[in-house]
Amino acid sequence: MKAMIVTYGCQMNEYDTHLVQSQLVSFGADIVDSVDVADFVLLNTCAIRGKPVEKVRSLLGDLRKIRARRPLVIGMMGCLAQLEEGQQMARKFGVDILLGPGSLLDIGKALESNERFWGLAFRDELHDHVPPAPAGQLQAHLTIMRGCDHHCTYCIVPTTRGPQVSRHPDDILRELDSLLVAGVQEVTLLGQNVNAYGVDQGARVGGYPSFANLLRLVGRSGVRRVKFTTSHPMNFTEDVAAAMAETPAICEYVHLPVQSGSSRVLRRMAREYTREDYLRHVADIRKHLPHAVLATDIIVGFPGETEEDFQETLSLYDEVGFDSAYMFAYSPRPGTPSYRHFDDLPREVKTERLERLIARQKEWSARKNAAKVGTIQELLLRGEAHDSGFLEGHTRGNHPTVVPKAVGVTGPGVHLARIEHATPHMMYATLVDSAGNALPELPKLNPEAAALTAPLAMA
Ligand code: SAM
Ligand code: SF4
Protein backbone atom coordinates (compact mmCIF):
# COMPACT_ATOMS: atom_id res chain seq x y z
CA MET A 1 0.00 0.00 0.00
CA LYS A 2 1.19 3.52 -0.80
CA ALA A 3 -0.10 5.88 1.86
CA MET A 4 -0.04 9.65 2.17
CA ILE A 5 -1.05 11.76 5.17
CA VAL A 6 -1.92 15.43 4.60
CA THR A 7 -1.58 17.37 7.86
CA TYR A 8 -3.44 20.54 8.81
CA GLY A 9 -3.25 22.43 12.10
CA CYS A 10 -1.04 22.42 15.14
CA GLN A 11 2.06 20.61 16.38
CA MET A 12 -0.16 18.03 18.13
CA ASN A 13 -1.46 17.07 14.71
CA GLU A 14 2.11 16.80 13.40
CA TYR A 15 2.89 14.48 16.31
CA ASP A 16 -0.25 12.42 15.59
CA THR A 17 0.65 12.22 11.90
CA HIS A 18 4.02 10.76 12.86
CA LEU A 19 2.31 8.30 15.23
CA VAL A 20 -0.13 7.04 12.57
CA GLN A 21 2.54 7.10 9.85
CA SER A 22 4.76 4.83 11.94
CA GLN A 23 1.80 2.47 12.47
CA LEU A 24 1.25 2.38 8.70
CA VAL A 25 4.94 1.62 8.11
CA SER A 26 4.77 -1.23 10.64
CA PHE A 27 1.92 -2.71 8.53
CA GLY A 28 4.18 -2.61 5.47
CA ALA A 29 2.94 0.64 3.87
CA ASP A 30 5.19 2.90 1.83
CA ILE A 31 4.76 6.56 2.75
CA VAL A 32 4.51 8.75 -0.34
CA ASP A 33 4.18 12.50 -0.72
CA SER A 34 2.04 12.79 -3.82
CA VAL A 35 -1.67 12.03 -4.20
CA ASP A 36 -0.92 10.87 -7.78
CA VAL A 37 0.89 7.75 -6.55
CA ALA A 38 -1.06 7.12 -3.33
CA ASP A 39 -3.73 4.46 -2.94
CA PHE A 40 -4.61 5.64 0.58
CA VAL A 41 -4.89 9.35 1.41
CA LEU A 42 -5.52 10.26 5.04
CA LEU A 43 -6.35 13.86 5.96
CA ASN A 44 -5.26 14.86 9.47
CA THR A 45 -7.73 17.66 10.08
CA CYS A 46 -8.04 20.80 12.21
CA ALA A 47 -11.34 22.31 13.39
CA ILE A 48 -10.12 25.29 15.38
CA ARG A 49 -11.21 27.87 12.81
CA GLY A 50 -13.44 27.88 9.72
CA LYS A 51 -10.54 28.15 7.24
CA PRO A 52 -8.85 24.77 7.87
CA VAL A 53 -12.31 23.14 7.79
CA GLU A 54 -12.96 24.61 4.34
CA LYS A 55 -9.56 23.38 3.11
CA VAL A 56 -10.50 19.83 4.11
CA ARG A 57 -13.87 20.12 2.35
CA SER A 58 -12.17 21.24 -0.84
CA LEU A 59 -9.52 18.48 -0.72
CA LEU A 60 -12.18 15.84 -0.06
CA GLY A 61 -13.95 17.08 -3.21
CA ASP A 62 -10.73 16.64 -5.21
CA LEU A 63 -10.13 13.17 -3.78
CA ARG A 64 -13.67 12.10 -4.67
CA LYS A 65 -13.00 13.13 -8.28
CA ILE A 66 -9.77 11.08 -8.33
CA ARG A 67 -11.61 8.08 -6.89
CA ALA A 68 -14.14 8.28 -9.74
CA ARG A 69 -11.22 7.43 -12.07
CA ARG A 70 -9.24 4.86 -10.02
CA PRO A 71 -9.32 2.94 -6.70
CA LEU A 72 -8.44 5.15 -3.74
CA VAL A 73 -9.09 4.75 -0.01
CA ILE A 74 -9.94 8.08 1.62
CA GLY A 75 -9.42 8.61 5.35
CA MET A 76 -9.97 11.45 7.78
CA MET A 77 -8.45 11.77 11.26
CA GLY A 78 -7.98 14.54 13.82
CA CYS A 79 -10.25 17.13 15.37
CA LEU A 80 -12.76 17.59 12.54
CA ALA A 81 -13.34 13.82 12.39
CA GLN A 82 -14.66 13.95 15.97
CA LEU A 83 -17.33 16.53 15.14
CA GLU A 84 -20.76 16.11 13.58
CA GLU A 85 -19.64 18.78 11.06
CA GLY A 86 -16.78 16.52 9.93
CA GLN A 87 -18.87 13.37 9.96
CA GLN A 88 -21.46 15.00 7.67
CA MET A 89 -18.62 15.90 5.32
CA ALA A 90 -17.30 12.33 5.52
CA ARG A 91 -20.73 10.94 4.55
CA LYS A 92 -21.08 13.42 1.69
CA PHE A 93 -17.66 12.67 0.19
CA GLY A 94 -17.67 8.91 0.88
CA VAL A 95 -14.82 8.81 3.40
CA ASP A 96 -13.86 5.16 4.11
CA ILE A 97 -11.93 5.57 7.37
CA LEU A 98 -12.66 8.15 10.05
CA LEU A 99 -10.56 8.28 13.24
CA GLY A 100 -11.07 10.80 16.03
CA PRO A 101 -8.02 12.02 18.01
CA GLY A 102 -8.58 9.33 20.67
CA SER A 103 -8.81 6.40 18.22
CA LEU A 104 -5.62 6.76 16.22
CA LEU A 105 -4.38 3.30 17.15
CA ASP A 106 -7.46 1.82 15.43
CA ILE A 107 -5.78 2.49 12.07
CA GLY A 108 -4.78 -1.19 11.73
CA LYS A 109 -8.32 -2.43 12.39
CA ALA A 110 -9.65 0.20 10.02
CA LEU A 111 -7.42 -0.97 7.16
CA GLU A 112 -8.31 -4.62 7.74
CA SER A 113 -12.02 -3.85 7.71
CA ASN A 114 -13.83 -4.41 4.42
CA GLU A 115 -16.46 -1.88 5.36
CA ARG A 116 -16.51 1.79 6.20
CA PHE A 117 -14.70 2.16 9.58
CA TRP A 118 -15.43 4.99 12.02
CA GLY A 119 -13.51 5.13 15.33
CA LEU A 120 -14.54 7.88 17.73
CA ALA A 121 -13.71 6.52 21.18
CA PHE A 122 -11.07 8.05 23.48
CA ARG A 123 -8.87 5.01 24.10
CA ASP A 124 -6.53 4.67 27.07
CA GLU A 125 -3.87 2.72 25.17
CA LEU A 126 -2.92 5.87 23.27
CA HIS A 127 -1.35 7.33 26.43
CA ASP A 128 1.29 4.66 26.98
CA HIS A 129 1.95 4.10 23.29
CA VAL A 130 5.49 5.20 22.41
CA PRO A 131 5.92 5.78 18.68
CA PRO A 132 9.35 5.07 17.17
CA ALA A 133 11.65 8.10 16.98
CA PRO A 134 11.48 9.99 13.68
CA ALA A 135 14.43 8.96 11.52
CA GLY A 136 17.24 11.41 10.81
CA GLN A 137 15.72 14.41 12.57
CA LEU A 138 17.32 16.73 15.08
CA GLN A 139 13.99 18.03 16.29
CA ALA A 140 10.99 16.11 17.63
CA HIS A 141 7.69 16.61 19.42
CA LEU A 142 6.75 14.69 22.54
CA THR A 143 3.12 14.71 23.67
CA ILE A 144 2.91 14.84 27.48
CA MET A 145 -0.87 15.12 27.72
CA ARG A 146 -3.96 14.93 25.55
CA GLY A 147 -7.24 16.85 25.71
CA CYS A 148 -8.17 19.93 27.69
CA ASP A 149 -10.13 20.60 30.90
CA HIS A 150 -10.65 24.29 30.19
CA HIS A 151 -13.76 25.57 28.51
CA CYS A 152 -12.76 28.77 26.74
CA THR A 153 -16.03 29.89 25.18
CA TYR A 154 -14.63 30.19 21.64
CA CYS A 155 -12.77 26.89 21.53
CA ILE A 156 -13.79 23.56 20.04
CA VAL A 157 -10.76 21.61 21.35
CA PRO A 158 -12.36 20.24 24.57
CA THR A 159 -15.09 18.72 22.35
CA THR A 160 -12.73 17.30 19.74
CA ARG A 161 -9.92 16.09 21.99
CA GLY A 162 -11.86 15.29 25.15
CA PRO A 163 -10.85 15.85 28.78
CA GLN A 164 -7.21 16.23 29.80
CA VAL A 165 -5.23 13.05 30.38
CA SER A 166 -1.56 13.40 31.38
CA ARG A 167 0.77 10.67 30.22
CA HIS A 168 2.65 8.78 32.91
CA PRO A 169 6.13 10.28 33.46
CA ASP A 170 7.71 6.84 32.82
CA ASP A 171 6.15 6.74 29.33
CA ILE A 172 7.33 10.29 28.65
CA LEU A 173 10.89 9.47 29.74
CA ARG A 174 10.84 6.21 27.75
CA GLU A 175 9.86 8.13 24.63
CA LEU A 176 12.48 10.78 25.38
CA ASP A 177 15.17 8.07 25.65
CA SER A 178 14.27 6.69 22.24
CA LEU A 179 14.48 10.22 20.77
CA LEU A 180 17.91 10.73 22.32
CA VAL A 181 19.18 7.40 21.00
CA ALA A 182 17.97 8.47 17.53
CA GLY A 183 20.07 11.64 17.76
CA VAL A 184 17.32 14.19 18.47
CA GLN A 185 18.76 17.41 19.91
CA GLU A 186 15.64 19.49 20.51
CA VAL A 187 12.43 18.15 22.01
CA THR A 188 9.21 20.16 22.27
CA LEU A 189 6.85 18.93 25.00
CA LEU A 190 3.28 19.22 23.76
CA GLY A 191 -0.10 19.66 25.37
CA GLN A 192 -3.05 22.08 25.20
CA ASN A 193 -2.14 23.30 28.66
CA VAL A 194 1.23 21.86 29.70
CA ASN A 195 1.25 23.79 32.98
CA ALA A 196 -1.67 21.68 34.18
CA TYR A 197 0.39 18.52 33.64
CA GLY A 198 -0.56 15.89 36.26
CA VAL A 199 -3.51 17.88 37.66
CA ASP A 200 -6.00 15.42 36.11
CA GLN A 201 -4.32 12.53 37.95
CA GLY A 202 -4.93 14.19 41.33
CA ALA A 203 -3.56 12.23 44.26
CA ARG A 204 -2.97 9.06 42.21
CA VAL A 205 -0.60 6.65 43.90
CA GLY A 206 2.76 6.65 42.20
CA GLY A 207 2.63 10.40 41.88
CA TYR A 208 2.87 12.62 38.84
CA PRO A 209 5.39 15.44 39.12
CA SER A 210 4.27 19.04 38.70
CA PHE A 211 5.03 20.49 35.27
CA ALA A 212 7.99 22.41 36.74
CA ASN A 213 9.42 19.16 38.12
CA LEU A 214 8.75 17.35 34.85
CA LEU A 215 10.81 20.09 33.15
CA ARG A 216 13.62 19.47 35.64
CA LEU A 217 13.46 15.71 34.96
CA VAL A 218 13.44 16.12 31.18
CA GLY A 219 16.14 18.78 31.36
CA ARG A 220 18.47 16.38 33.18
CA SER A 221 17.99 13.56 30.65
CA GLY A 222 20.86 14.61 28.42
CA VAL A 223 18.73 16.25 25.74
CA ARG A 224 20.37 19.42 24.47
CA ARG A 225 17.33 21.69 24.08
CA VAL A 226 13.82 21.47 25.50
CA LYS A 227 10.86 23.66 24.58
CA PHE A 228 7.21 23.33 25.53
CA THR A 229 3.86 24.51 24.26
CA THR A 230 1.18 25.58 25.04
CA SER A 231 1.13 27.25 28.43
CA HIS A 232 -2.15 28.48 29.86
CA PRO A 233 -1.74 31.58 32.06
CA MET A 234 -4.25 30.24 34.58
CA ASN A 235 -2.01 27.30 35.50
CA PHE A 236 1.33 29.07 35.05
CA THR A 237 3.35 29.08 38.29
CA GLU A 238 6.51 30.95 39.19
CA ASP A 239 8.14 27.55 39.79
CA VAL A 240 7.99 26.90 36.02
CA ALA A 241 10.08 30.04 35.43
CA ALA A 242 12.44 28.94 38.25
CA ALA A 243 12.80 25.45 36.73
CA MET A 244 13.61 27.03 33.36
CA ALA A 245 16.23 29.30 34.87
CA GLU A 246 18.03 26.53 36.78
CA THR A 247 17.93 23.91 33.98
CA PRO A 248 20.31 24.85 31.14
CA ALA A 249 18.64 22.53 28.59
CA ILE A 250 15.27 24.32 28.90
CA CYS A 251 15.23 27.04 26.26
CA GLU A 252 14.40 30.55 27.44
CA TYR A 253 11.33 30.68 25.19
CA VAL A 254 7.83 31.00 26.63
CA HIS A 255 4.70 30.79 24.51
CA LEU A 256 1.98 32.12 26.81
CA PRO A 257 -1.26 32.86 24.93
CA VAL A 258 -3.02 35.93 26.33
CA GLN A 259 -5.91 36.05 23.77
CA SER A 260 -6.96 39.59 24.80
CA GLY A 261 -5.63 42.52 26.83
CA SER A 262 -9.09 43.36 28.16
CA SER A 263 -10.18 41.69 31.41
CA ARG A 264 -13.81 42.16 30.31
CA VAL A 265 -13.19 40.16 27.11
CA LEU A 266 -11.10 37.58 28.98
CA ARG A 267 -14.08 37.03 31.30
CA ARG A 268 -16.42 36.52 28.32
CA MET A 269 -13.86 34.10 26.88
CA ALA A 270 -13.85 32.24 30.27
CA ARG A 271 -10.05 32.38 30.34
CA GLU A 272 -9.99 32.45 34.17
CA TYR A 273 -7.33 35.19 34.52
CA THR A 274 -7.27 38.96 34.20
CA ARG A 275 -4.95 41.33 32.37
CA GLU A 276 -3.23 41.99 35.73
CA ASP A 277 -2.74 38.25 36.40
CA TYR A 278 -1.14 37.90 32.99
CA LEU A 279 1.23 40.81 33.59
CA ARG A 280 2.21 39.28 36.94
CA HIS A 281 3.20 36.05 35.15
CA VAL A 282 5.30 38.04 32.70
CA ALA A 283 7.02 39.78 35.62
CA ASP A 284 7.75 36.38 37.23
CA ILE A 285 9.20 35.08 33.96
CA ARG A 286 11.40 38.16 33.57
CA LYS A 287 12.52 37.96 37.20
CA HIS A 288 13.94 34.47 36.65
CA LEU A 289 14.79 34.82 32.95
CA PRO A 290 15.54 38.46 32.10
CA HIS A 291 16.27 37.55 28.45
CA ALA A 292 13.28 35.25 27.92
CA VAL A 293 11.75 35.34 24.45
CA LEU A 294 8.00 35.78 24.82
CA ALA A 295 5.42 34.69 22.29
CA THR A 296 1.65 34.77 22.54
CA ASP A 297 -1.66 34.01 20.80
CA ILE A 298 -4.25 36.76 20.36
CA ILE A 299 -7.82 36.60 19.07
CA VAL A 300 -9.22 39.88 17.77
CA GLY A 301 -12.88 40.65 17.21
CA PHE A 302 -14.23 38.31 19.86
CA PRO A 303 -18.03 38.93 20.11
CA GLY A 304 -18.72 42.14 22.00
CA GLU A 305 -15.09 43.36 21.75
CA THR A 306 -15.27 47.17 21.62
CA GLU A 307 -12.64 49.52 20.21
CA GLU A 308 -11.66 50.26 23.85
CA ASP A 309 -11.18 46.53 24.52
CA PHE A 310 -9.05 46.24 21.40
CA GLN A 311 -6.99 49.26 22.51
CA GLU A 312 -6.30 47.35 25.74
CA THR A 313 -4.93 44.47 23.67
CA LEU A 314 -2.63 46.89 21.83
CA SER A 315 -1.51 48.48 25.09
CA LEU A 316 -0.85 45.07 26.67
CA TYR A 317 1.22 44.20 23.61
CA ASP A 318 3.31 47.33 24.24
CA GLU A 319 3.53 46.73 27.96
CA VAL A 320 4.88 43.20 27.48
CA GLY A 321 6.80 43.84 24.25
CA PHE A 322 6.21 40.37 22.81
CA ASP A 323 8.87 38.95 20.53
CA SER A 324 6.26 37.29 18.34
CA ALA A 325 2.58 36.47 18.20
CA TYR A 326 0.12 34.18 16.46
CA MET A 327 -2.85 36.40 15.70
CA PHE A 328 -6.32 35.32 14.65
CA ALA A 329 -9.65 36.93 13.78
CA TYR A 330 -12.35 35.27 15.87
CA SER A 331 -13.94 32.41 13.96
CA PRO A 332 -17.32 31.23 15.25
CA ARG A 333 -17.21 27.44 15.66
CA PRO A 334 -20.50 25.53 15.84
CA GLY A 335 -20.68 23.67 19.16
CA THR A 336 -18.88 26.33 21.20
CA PRO A 337 -20.61 28.51 23.83
CA SER A 338 -19.64 31.76 22.08
CA TYR A 339 -21.21 30.49 18.84
CA ARG A 340 -24.45 29.69 20.67
CA HIS A 341 -24.71 32.78 22.85
CA PHE A 342 -22.92 35.70 21.21
CA ASP A 343 -23.30 37.59 17.93
CA ASP A 344 -20.30 37.65 15.62
CA LEU A 345 -18.84 41.10 14.84
CA PRO A 346 -18.84 42.25 11.19
CA ARG A 347 -15.99 40.72 9.19
CA GLU A 348 -14.60 44.17 8.24
CA VAL A 349 -14.23 45.11 11.93
CA LYS A 350 -12.31 41.90 12.66
CA THR A 351 -10.09 42.24 9.58
CA GLU A 352 -9.28 45.87 10.28
CA ARG A 353 -8.33 45.13 13.91
CA LEU A 354 -6.25 42.15 12.84
CA GLU A 355 -4.34 44.38 10.40
CA ARG A 356 -3.64 46.93 13.13
CA LEU A 357 -2.47 44.21 15.50
CA ILE A 358 -0.19 42.66 12.87
CA ALA A 359 1.35 46.10 12.25
CA ARG A 360 2.02 46.41 16.00
CA GLN A 361 3.51 42.89 16.12
CA LYS A 362 5.83 43.70 13.20
CA GLU A 363 7.10 46.84 14.94
CA TRP A 364 7.87 44.89 18.11
CA SER A 365 9.38 41.88 16.35
CA ALA A 366 11.59 44.22 14.32
CA ARG A 367 12.73 45.99 17.51
CA LYS A 368 13.27 42.77 19.47
CA ASN A 369 15.10 41.01 16.64
CA ALA A 370 17.27 44.08 15.93
CA ALA A 371 18.41 43.98 19.57
CA LYS A 372 19.84 40.51 18.86
CA VAL A 373 22.16 41.79 16.12
CA GLY A 374 25.77 41.26 17.21
CA THR A 375 24.86 38.53 19.73
CA ILE A 376 25.98 34.92 19.48
CA GLN A 377 23.09 32.45 19.32
CA GLU A 378 22.95 28.67 19.31
CA LEU A 379 21.29 27.53 16.08
CA LEU A 380 19.66 24.22 15.38
CA LEU A 381 20.21 23.90 11.62
CA ARG A 382 17.61 21.71 9.94
CA GLY A 383 19.14 21.66 6.47
CA GLU A 384 19.36 23.55 3.18
CA ALA A 385 17.61 26.92 2.98
CA HIS A 386 15.64 27.99 -0.07
CA ASP A 387 18.82 29.52 -1.55
CA SER A 388 21.56 26.96 -2.12
CA GLY A 389 24.71 27.81 -0.20
CA PHE A 390 22.63 28.61 2.89
CA LEU A 391 21.28 26.59 5.80
CA GLU A 392 18.11 27.32 7.75
CA GLY A 393 17.39 26.76 11.39
CA HIS A 394 16.23 28.46 14.56
CA THR A 395 17.62 29.82 17.81
CA ARG A 396 16.80 28.68 21.35
CA GLY A 397 14.25 31.51 21.26
CA ASN A 398 12.62 30.09 18.09
CA HIS A 399 13.80 32.84 15.74
CA PRO A 400 13.93 31.49 12.18
CA THR A 401 17.53 32.10 11.04
CA VAL A 402 19.54 31.66 7.84
CA VAL A 403 23.34 31.21 7.65
CA PRO A 404 25.77 30.74 4.76
CA LYS A 405 27.35 27.28 4.84
CA ALA A 406 30.93 27.20 6.12
CA VAL A 407 33.83 24.79 6.06
CA GLY A 408 32.72 21.79 8.12
CA VAL A 409 29.11 23.00 8.41
CA THR A 410 27.13 22.08 5.31
CA GLY A 411 24.16 20.22 6.78
CA PRO A 412 21.98 19.71 9.84
CA GLY A 413 23.51 20.20 13.28
CA VAL A 414 23.71 22.54 16.26
CA HIS A 415 26.19 25.41 15.88
CA LEU A 416 26.94 28.87 17.16
CA ALA A 417 26.30 31.88 14.95
CA ARG A 418 26.56 35.66 15.18
CA ILE A 419 23.42 37.54 14.18
CA GLU A 420 24.36 40.05 11.46
CA HIS A 421 21.01 41.37 10.33
CA ALA A 422 17.38 40.98 11.40
CA THR A 423 13.91 41.60 9.95
CA PRO A 424 10.66 41.11 11.88
CA HIS A 425 10.43 37.50 10.73
CA MET A 426 13.97 36.35 9.93
CA MET A 427 17.50 36.64 11.27
CA TYR A 428 20.61 36.42 9.11
CA ALA A 429 23.76 35.11 10.79
CA THR A 430 27.37 33.95 10.31
CA LEU A 431 28.63 30.68 11.76
CA VAL A 432 31.27 31.15 14.46
CA ASP A 433 33.46 28.96 16.67
CA SER A 434 33.22 28.87 20.46
CA ALA A 435 35.55 31.90 20.68
CA GLY A 436 33.21 33.89 18.43
CA ASN A 437 35.48 33.79 15.36
CA ALA A 438 33.74 33.40 12.01
CA LEU A 439 34.17 29.94 10.50
CA PRO A 440 35.92 30.00 7.10
CA GLU A 441 33.58 30.29 4.14
CA LEU A 442 33.27 27.37 1.75
CA PRO A 443 35.73 27.67 -1.16
CA LYS A 444 33.86 28.94 -4.22
CA LEU A 445 33.92 26.46 -7.10
CA ASN A 446 34.50 28.04 -10.51
CA PRO A 447 31.62 27.32 -12.91
CA GLU A 448 33.70 24.89 -15.04
CA ALA A 449 34.74 22.83 -12.02
CA ALA A 450 31.12 22.86 -10.83
CA ALA A 451 29.96 21.55 -14.23
CA LEU A 452 32.51 18.74 -14.01
CA THR A 453 31.67 17.69 -10.45
CA ALA A 454 27.86 17.90 -10.77
CA PRO A 455 27.37 14.58 -12.63
CA LEU A 456 29.81 12.89 -10.26
CA ALA A 457 27.87 14.13 -7.26
CA MET A 458 24.64 12.76 -8.75
CA ALA A 459 26.11 9.37 -9.68
N1 SAM B 1 -4.54 25.52 24.48
C1 SAM B 1 -3.94 26.69 24.00
C2 SAM B 1 -4.29 27.87 24.89
O1 SAM B 1 -5.32 27.87 25.52
O2 SAM B 1 -3.56 28.81 24.90
C3 SAM B 1 -4.31 27.03 22.58
C4 SAM B 1 -4.79 26.00 21.69
S1 SAM B 1 -5.56 26.50 20.21
C5 SAM B 1 -5.25 25.05 19.31
C6 SAM B 1 -4.45 27.65 19.42
C7 SAM B 1 -4.99 29.04 19.31
O3 SAM B 1 -6.04 29.10 18.38
C8 SAM B 1 -5.57 29.63 20.56
O4 SAM B 1 -4.60 30.08 21.46
C9 SAM B 1 -6.41 30.76 20.03
O5 SAM B 1 -5.67 31.95 19.92
C10 SAM B 1 -6.79 30.27 18.63
N2 SAM B 1 -8.22 29.95 18.55
C11 SAM B 1 -8.89 28.96 19.17
N3 SAM B 1 -10.19 29.00 18.86
C12 SAM B 1 -10.37 30.05 18.02
C13 SAM B 1 -11.49 30.62 17.36
N4 SAM B 1 -12.72 30.12 17.50
N5 SAM B 1 -11.29 31.69 16.55
C14 SAM B 1 -10.04 32.21 16.39
N6 SAM B 1 -8.96 31.73 17.00
C15 SAM B 1 -9.11 30.66 17.81
FE1 SF4 C 1 -9.03 25.67 23.78
FE2 SF4 C 1 -8.91 27.07 26.05
FE3 SF4 C 1 -8.37 24.44 26.07
FE4 SF4 C 1 -6.67 26.14 24.90
S1 SF4 C 1 -7.21 26.08 27.10
S2 SF4 C 1 -7.39 24.21 24.06
S3 SF4 C 1 -8.03 27.67 24.03
S4 SF4 C 1 -10.34 25.40 25.63
UniProtKB/TrEMBL annotation:
Per the annotation, how and in what number is the cofactor bound? Binds 2 [4Fe-4S] clusters. One cluster is coordinated with 3 cysteines and an exchangeable S-adenosyl-L-methionine.
As cofactor, the record names:
[4Fe-4S] cluster
Q: Where does [4Fe-4S] cluster 2 bind?
A: 148, 152, 155
UniProt xrefs under Pfam families:
Radical_SAM, UPF0004
Keyword hit for Ion transport: no
Tell me the ranges covered by the Radical SAM core domain, including all copies.
134-367
Please state where this protein is localized. Cytoplasm
* A GO MF label: tRNA-2-methylthio-N(6)-dimethylallyladenosine(37) synthase activity
Enzyme nomenclature, EC number: 2.8.4.3
Which reaction is recorded as catalysed by this protein?
N(6)-dimethylallyladenosine(37) in tRNA + (sulfur carrier)-SH + AH2 + 2 S-adenosyl-L-methionine = 2-methylsulfanyl-N(6)-dimethylallyladenosine(37) in tRNA + (sulfur carrier)-H + 5'-deoxyadenosine + L-methionine + A + S-adenosyl-L-homocysteine + 2 H(+)
Keywords, A to Z, come to: 4Fe-4S, Cytoplasm, Iron, Iron-sulfur, Metal-binding, S-adenosyl-L-methionine, Transferase, tRNA processing
InterPro entries listed in its UniProt record: Elp3/MiaA/NifB-like_rSAM, Methylthiotransferase, Methylthiotransferase_CS, Methylthiotransferase_N, Methylthiotransferase_N_sf, MiaB_methiolase, rSAM, rSAM_horseshoe
Coiled-coil region: none
Domain MTTase N-terminal stretches: 1-116
Summarize where [4Fe-4S] cluster 1 binds, as residue positions.
10, 46, 79
| Cellular component GO terms held in the UniProt record | cytosol
Its family remark reads: Belongs to the methylthiotransferase family. MiaB subfamily.
Biological role stated in the UniProt entry: Catalyzes the methylthiolation of N6-(dimethylallyl)adenosine (i(6)A), leading to the formation of 2-methylthio-N6-(dimethylallyl)adenosine (ms(2)i(6)A) at position 37 in tRNAs that read codons beginning with uridine.
Q: How does it assemble?
A: Monomer.
Protein's name according to its UniProt entry: tRNA-2-methylthio-N(6)-dimethylallyladenosine synthase
Q: Which organism is it from?
A: Deinococcus soli
